[in-house]
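Narrative of activities, Objective 1.

The group set out to show that a structural description can be obtained from nothing but a protein's sequence at a throughput compatible with the screening campaign. Below is one input-output pair from the validation batch, recorded exactly as produced.
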Amino acid sequence: WADMADADTSVVFDAHLAGIPVSVIGIESRAIPRKGWFPSDGPDQWTSGTLFPNSSKKTARAINAASGSRPIVVLANLSGFDGSPESLRNIQLEYGAEIGRAIVNFDGPVVFCVVSRYHGGAFVVFSGALNDNMEVLAVEGSFASVLGGAPAAAVVFTRDVNARTAADSEVKELEARLNAAEDDATRSALRVELGTVRANARNAKLGEVAAEFEAIHNIQRAQNVGSVHHIVPAAELRPQLVAAIERGMA
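Output recorded for this entry:
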């Protein structure tokens, strides 16, 4: 177990659901501080909704252990896999692929339920296309897309975010004052103020673009393209999970 000490973000336990023995896999929804020394090129905490090398390995092992024995229920708040140099050095990609292999080879029903987010590599390794006996549910109000809103805004729509930031009224006003300033002291003070205002404006615009992206790439769209089979109200989650397991066992 010492080798699995850093697998905290994957939570695995055996349970009964409506009297049916199942293995349940959950993804940690809060950040967990790392213990002891760790490399500078890795995360300083185990972030929520993320799989790291050991937690990926733990997840794959749990799926393989239940195969042919009992159904698997995955309660997912999963934004993907960590891509830090440390994680990649510790064969993150291989362990992530092992999850996909475990799903492909799994003998029995697999119920994957999105309780919050479903993005990134999780969209691949937990795809319903990998196993005909896998059903993907999602709680109303959750999000499912290959790319989440925040990364999409920061990486894909950078030009749009920059344009909105430049067009911000407060930024434009400070830029005009800076251009009109006549002495070095005033210009220096305005540059500092402009840097702060521009950073705040950019953060706000990132949030705007992320919200717009997620309004389009919502859970209904994921259902329309076949990534999610059923959207269920939170109040009906338990009976819907039971029904999905029973359909898989039929």
